Amino acid sequence: MTTLQTVFAKAKADNRAALVGYLPAGFPSKDGAIAAAAALVEAGCDVIEIGLPYSDPLLDGPTIQDAVHRALSNGTRIADVMRTVEGVAATGAATLVMTYWNPIDRYGAERFARDLANAGGVGTITPDLTPEESEPWRAASAAAGIDTVFLVAPSSTEQRIKAVVDCCTGFVYAASLMGVTGARETVNTAAEGLVARTRAHTDLPVCLGLGVGTGAQAAEVAAYADGVIVGSAFIRRLLDAPDEAAGRESAAALARDMAKGVRR
Amino acid sequence: MANEGSILTAADLVGNGPHGDDPDMHGKFGLFGGRFVPEALIPALDEVAAVYEKAKNDAEFLREFDHLLRTYAGRPTTLTDVPRFGEQAGGARLVLKREDLTHTGAHKINNVLGQALITKRLGKKRVIAETGAGQHGVATATAAALLGLECVIYMGAVDCERQALNVARMKLLGATVVPVTNGSQTLKDAINEAFRDWVTNVDTTHYLFGTVAGPHPFPEMVRDFARIIGVEARRQMLELTGRLPDAVCAAVGGGSNAIGAFHAFIGDEGVQLHGYEAAGRGLHSGEHALTLTAGSVGVLHGARTYVLQDDEGQTIESHSISAGLDYPGVGPEHAWLKDSGRATYHGITDDEAMAAFSLLARTEGIIPAIESSHALAGALKLGRELGPEATILVNLSGRGDKDMGTAMKYFNL
Ligand SMILES: Cc1ncc(COP(=O)(O)O)c(C=O)c1O
User: Fold this and answer.
1) What InterPro entries would the database entry show (chain B) (predicted)?
2) What is the greatest pairwise CA distance in chain B?
3) Among protein residues, the one whose CA lies closest to atom 16 of ligand 1
4) Which of B104, B108, B136, B227, when mutated, tests ligand 1's pocket best, judged by the most ligand atoms within 8 Å of its CB?
């Protein structure tokens, strides 16, 4: 199992940013998700976030909503998410689960943390779990030996940034913009400032996500962040392809471009 | 007289708080409530909470709110005795609180006017809102027109169809109505979409949330703005009957009209509080909105509360003939009132609600909203239980004009 600490130490030694790819479990199909994530790893992603499909993804834009809807229609369940994590972790990428809080809450925090650790997962990203509500999850994660990643946003005050980073282990997720997931024409110029403000409060790696869609954008972000997080752009390739194999190849081509970007 | 002195005091707005019924600093009612939202929204929620905290103790704010409630919304609303309807309630005395007589036709206007004033104090020029029945959307579009705010309303595509009249009203009032086509295409999805707009445009925009659900401070603030219903009704019942009612009945969707009717009575131990959820086609059909009655504790739309969800926390789509009750979540204060036993919640099927809808029209000449008809149907049952000596206050949360399409289909009119 590759840990986040190993990934970021290695990227740092190589003087580059890490590339983090996001895909929901169960999309384009249960096995197709594992194959697509493996293709992203092969193409140069260091870390994979497996999305846990949720019925009410209120932080997600149309691309991820569409993918998640398909995953749920496929009957994707938490056992499938765990199986996906297991398959992806076997490729050697550090593998996390990104999920809204309610599915963990319902499944049971301890049980989820334990099952994720057993599947080879190294942590979670929980975008709607605030520091005030995070204690039970941090305790369960610590007990299972997995990391907890939370988000800071351009609107975050210094106080809030401090509160969030104090709850993070592994890395801090900086949201580049005020808005939902989805590729954008340009990366928000406020993003660099947010990364700098976050660094003032922590020594953890700071990864930037939301709106990154091209190799050039990845290069731009890699100049100031420790990791570049890409989701919707990969998913768009999978959605637009005539079949799973073509989608995988198209997403992998983009990942290769991005992997070059983070090394520029 | 009513037009001179203020009808509203700070205590009316927020209560005296002697019953431990205010949330803690994190917006928790016991286990329930809180904030489960993207970090990006925390500063905006903090700002709303701070501005509201200041406003509720500010005489100028209370004066403005009071003025709008009286001269624009048409408060105080009257009580109406409904003896012919009450014959079907075992002879119990049923008294309606007539929120249907407010401007725009439902209790939603109370909260909307309060939050519209908060929007001005936030210095924001744009409001967004979700709507199910369209009543909250209409009220929001109305207040936006009154105060010169840009207004965008998110409404599930299914609801746009069954409440088409309200869509036209909103457009006429100058609002943009966005039909939401994902998920169940009802209120829950409209809320998701409104949150997506808010997180994107939070610098310029206030999310004028329409019920007592959602992240802190909405459950508390919306309750306070709806609280006037019960405050007035309590005084009026004492005047009319010389005593407090034996029970207060209200329909529960997100829970705003019910908490508004209940809150002033929470400290009155002898007054039973009954909330009626939509049982749709019945509990066992799986097609219902029995969040409190048959749901489980989870997190939806930013708060911990009762939720209709499966064993893995996926929201289960609700069903009700009334768009305003067709919601798989509920305000956290109701979750707390349920668990503490202070209030009791029951289900009313589509058919029971429609029977009460028609009965009130025929016996009293009042056409209620289908949402409110759930409370009426509940009061009929409760009256038979409590007997002819009982007095029951029913919150008639809205009028049925918007429901003519549904009624025409249901009754083959
Ligand atoms: C007339 C009326 N009553 C009740 C409701 C349900 O909402 P709440 O439970 O917040 O009062 C609605 C919602 O649209 C409504 O229009």
Assistant:
1) Trp_synth_b_CS, Trp_synth_beta, Trp_synth_beta/beta-like, TrpB-like_PALP, TrpB-like_PALP_sf
2) 57
3) B135
4) B108
